[in-house]
């Protein structure tokens, strides 16, 4: 069995959904499990629903209606008959969202987030599955929440691999075309959990691991894995082959094409990953596999924007040593800030952090009790794998470099 993953851009409108059907017909779709993300920017729109629910009830109905209108626009482009059963299915899903928000008593943002945002994937897969059946491509719709079992760390759930393996093998008919959702799981109480933003790639890898799949293909709007994000860098080049190790390094540093958690389960069973274009599905794309290095071997540029640089120093000029550092990292963990770079001297400690869960301000309050703290917000962290001096100079040009760190293969720059 193969596992395919189609992201939001590949199903952003009616024409895009039709193109997914064309891709499946062109490359074959039997013995295939297809993982599909929410359509277009639906996850952002569903996040807006959650924000309205907590902070601006007057905007709640309008934020829901925005999502309804968007999906009905896609429906009308795919199903000419306004009485098609798909319209009732989609209405039922939106009624479930409204019903949950009406009866929910939990004040926990992360819990509510997962129960609401999950409907983006449920909507997209319901629509795509129905359209495939409409055009004669028989398929089975599966609720991934019945297969991927997790703990109850909402918005960043951890996989229960043993239970997930059992559920996947029991529910997937490997002789058919199956359609399911990315990003989602469920806990022991059957509440929905999510695996972190961009978690659909990870979903594909989890399912491939459990099914002993022959390969995973991630279908993107780019030719494959590039040596730089073309939105931020000019003249990005296609990487034809990458080893698991190299791909994990790139993902760890923030390369957006592959989710950081995706590669570990694939590497454990040596399942190759193909990153291909849904615009030109027969093109080569990029293959990630065992021990094939990186081809061509050129500098790879990664940027993470909107980061935070903290510079900590002791109030009494004493050394920052193991007990201080362990205390600092515990605070990072408690406030859910991800560490991207560290640099320390005898009496100072610099760290670049990702503040995606908005824990910075309470963290600063704790740190200032024991340390002198200098905080730079909205900095960018640039990473160059396989760097040369020309590549480094190209990034330094015209920028204020706050921290520079070099290793044998990698250089990182924090710039203002």
UniProtKB/TrEMBL annotation:
It comes from the Bacteria. Pathway: Amino-acid biosynthesis; L-methionine biosynthesis via de novo pathway; L-homoserine from L-aspartate: step 1/3; Amino-acid biosynthesis; L-threonine biosynthesis; L-threonine from L-aspartate: step 1/5; Amino-acid biosynthesis; L-lysine biosynthesis via DAP pathway; (S)-tetrahydrodipicolinate from L-aspartate: step 1/4. Keywords: Amino-acid biosynthesis, ATP-binding, Kinase, Nucleotide-binding, Transferase. Its EC number is 2.7.2.4. Belongs to the aspartokinase family. It comes from Flagellimonas aequoris. The keyword Amino-acid biosynthesis applies. InterPro entries: AceGlu_kinase-like_sf, ACT-like_dom_sf, Asp/Glu/Uridylate_kinase, Asp_kin_monofn, Asp_kinase, AsparK_Bifunc_asparK/hSer_DH. One of its GO terms (biological process) is homoserine biosynthetic process. GO terms for cellular component: cytosol. This is Aspartokinase. It catalyses: L-aspartate + ATP = 4-phospho-L-aspartate + ADP. ATP binds at residue 231.
